[in-house]
Write a structure and sequence with these properties.
33% of the residues lie in helices and 18% in strands. The chain is of the alpha+beta class. It has an eight-stranded mixed beta barrel. It is elongated. The chain starts with 10 loop residues before the first helix and ends in a 7-residue tail after the last helix.
């Protein structure tokens, strides 16, 4: 039997004999694989997130400023209108309060022609919450027109700035106050501030107090007016005041409420974002906007209560 023919070469030699054809149009250099920009290392997402956060913070702060210097004035004007109607009715019925009453209750009307104040309602109490309604009567002092030193605090820049024009008062200007006991007349005699107290020997006076500056409320100014009409009897029995009712004080208890409203705003925002991602964005934002605005309004009110009460 004849032996099989010997192989002409090994497998390697056969592979080497295969002709490889390279298309000249293809670049034979290796192709570098680069990751997409969005997946490089996540670092590029941080500037975007920080930018969004700063934008939202800016919108929040601008909204707070708009509330303090615009919307709060509308709120105060509405409260003044309601209080004036109530107090005028009580004067007509001779039921206007003469002694200690619930804070926020209207107790007097102020007229100061020299600076254009007419029928300004004074409410009981000088805590920040009370002064959102208008000028407030210091609860441990007599009412205007009564014997003794009556004290009224008012805001200089926010919530309608009822005492914003008070620095325009000059010695000799007239002030009229109307309470349940009748009309009282005062004449401005001295002007001072918390750092330079002016002694007035008159036993029956009216002090109008507000922040010295409409920008930085670090001190308060007062306008001392002497009673020129017959003094009415002070019934007494007035309660002691709290620290939040003194000039330049804020309500520290409002901080807890501000944190609660802030948390509620975060929850509503997160729920709206999740709803927008899963369902219709338009409907989700439409549903979340009313409660978010309500919570934001209450949050702004709580933050405003932390500011000095005469600002």
């Amino acid at each position: 039997m004849a032996a099989p023919p010997a192989p002409s070469g090994t497998g390697l030699s056969r592979v080497s004999e295969i002709q490889v054809t390279v298309d000249p149009r293809v670049d034979p250099s290796p192709v570098a694989l680069t990751p997409s920009p969005g997946r490089r290392n996540g670092a590029s997402s941080w500037p975007h997130g920080a930018g969004v956060g700063l934008t939202l913070l800016g919108v929040f702060l601008l909204g707070f400023l708009a509330y303090l210097y615009a919307a709060s004035g509308i709120q105060e004007a509405r409260a003044q209108s309601t209080a004036f109607a109530t107090f005028r009715y009580e004067l007509g019925q001779q039921t206007a309060p003469l002694d200690a009453v619930t804070p926020g209750t209207p107790v007097a009307l102020l007229d100061i022609p020299a600076i254009g104040i007419q029928n300004m309602v004074v409410v009981e109490g000088t805590a920040p919450e009370n002064l959102t309604l208008g000028p407030g009567h210091l609860r441990d002092s007599p009412l205007p027109g009564e014997s003794g030193v009556s004290v009224i605090l008012g805001r200089r820049a926010t919530f309608g700035a009822p005492f914003g024009r008070l620095p325009g008062l000059r010695r000799g200007d007239k002030i009229t106050a109307i309470t349940g006991q009748g009309r009282a007349s005062y004449t401005v005699m001295a002007i001072g501030d918390s750092g330079h107290l002016v002694e007035d020997p008159a036993p029956n006076r009216l002090l109008l107090v507000t922040a010295c500056s409409a920008a930085v409320p670090t001190s308060y100014c007062y306008f001392d007016a002497d009673l020129t009409s017959a003094p009415q009897t002070d019934p007494g029995g007035r309660p002691p005041i709290t620290a939040a009712e003194t000039p330049l004080s804020g309500d520290s208890s409002a901080l807890v409420l501000a944190l609660v409203w802030g948390l509620a705003l975060v929850i509503i925002s997160a729920a709206g974002t999740v709803a927008a991602a899963r369902w219709s964005p338009g409907l989700a934002y439409l549903a979340a906007t009313p409660p978010a605005l309500a919570v934001l309004w209450n949050l702004y009110q709580s933050l405003a209560a932390l500011l000095p009460n005469v600002y």
